[in-house]
Amino acid sequence: MKKSTEKLNIKSQKLNGKAKTKKFFTVSPLETENVAKVLARAVLETQLAKSARVIALVGELGSGKTTFTQGFAKGLGVREKILSPTFILMRRYELKTKNYKLKTRYFYHIDCYRLDNPVKELLYLGFKKILADPGNIVAVEWADRIKRILPKDVLWVHFKNMAENQRSITIE
After folding, report:
1. CA angle, residues 146, 161, 70, in degrees to nearest 5
2. What is the architecture, at CATH level 2, of domain 31-163?
């Protein structure tokens, strides 16, 4: 069983074009955030040149998707407080980190949970334009609801509650 406190070698993931699955078990929100921070740094180092990088988050309510996204944003260098976009659907954060050579400009946090027709509503909000910009990194909670409009090279992150504050996180 891999714990999040071990050194994470997420770079060997699908980020380098080879589909490998990694599973982590966390026992606190802080550990969940730490797994996400490492993943964010790996994404910054390997971002695709032709379109936005998309992280698709899937799991039941309370399984850690928002906590993970908060850690992911911190790993990208976002200094603002990351709030769930459940009621407003989407939040955009400017990336001001200068310690990487990529031209990433924005981090989008999208939540598809409350959308009645998630595909139609996201397209109306300009989702295709967001995805087309290689300067964007996009995290989508409840991404399974919009799977058909996501790019093929999405990085999927699955969450499962194991016990109180314990979860498994599978990255593929």
Report:
1. 65
2. 3-Layer(aba) Sandwich (3.40)
Burial category of 172 from C-beta neighbours within 10 Å (exposed 0-12, middle 13-18, buried 19 and up): middle
- Give pLDDT tens digits for 90-106: 889 888 755 455 566 89
Query: CA torsion 72→144→64→135, rounded to 10°?
Result: 10
6-46 residue pLDDT tens: 445 554 344 444 557 899 999 999 999 999 999 998 888 87
What is the full DSSP assignment across 13-56?
A: SGGGT----EEEEESSHHHHHHHHHHHHHHHHHH--SSS-EEEE
Cβ-defined contacts of 95-103 (< 8 Å, 24+): 95/137, 97/44, 100/44, 100/45, 102/44, 102/47, 103/134, 103/135
| Distance between CA atoms of residues 42 and 38, nearest Å | 6
Give residue limits of the domains in the chain: 31-163
The Cβ of residue 90 has, within 10 Å, a number of other Cβ atoms equal to 17
